[in-house]
Amino acid sequence: MARKETAADAANAGRLKQIALTYKMTRKADKKIGLVLAAVGIGTLGVFLAIGFLIGHPVYLGIFGLLIALLATAIVFGRRAERAAFGQMEGQPGAAAAVLDNIGRGWTTTPAVAMNRSQDVVHRAVGKAGIVLVAEGNPNRVKSLLAAEKKKMNRIVADVPVHDVIVGDGEGQVGLKKLRTTLLKYPRVLTGPQVTATNDRLRALGDLMSNMPVPKGPMPKGMRMPKGR
Q1: Using CA atoms, how far apart are residues 93 and 121, in angstroms rounded to an integer?
Q2: How does pLDDT run across 87-96, given as a tens digit for each residue?
């Protein structure tokens, strides 16, 4: 019994520590976070107390208002913390991969499946919507990189739909904040077993490419890749 209580206390302490750390990180990007949360909490509680006095039940409405105030404060805090996190990630290399890693269950993310010398990169996410290629980098350079990867996917898994997204604020691009929502809006056309089979095929391809012997340095002129027997 004592062990369970100790574990529960440790878990609660861990949650409180995480909330405090999230608040500190959010406050760096959102200086008004404290005032906003206080206004939401006090304002919500004040409204319910006022209603309680009007109808003659200030205690009941006060308790209920306190619970609603805590819930409203938590929701506002979560949204502003998420906005601050996206603001800090915006423009950072690998930001799209970080968003894809937290897209939710049912999705498998493979970062940096393609990259060029300018560090433009394409990430891959596989789910019931099919394959989604997410590119980040210079819009002009990344289009050719994305097209090449999409062509390869269509050749390997021709029966699976392939979507492509370029992360950015320009026309035809998807902002980092809307990336997760965009992927979740795609229609689900694959079953669970089909998703597993697609991941297995892509994983086998990755293993094959990683185990393929590649000569060090530039390839000699006239040299041809060996043919499989």
Answers
A1: 9
A2: 665 656 667 7
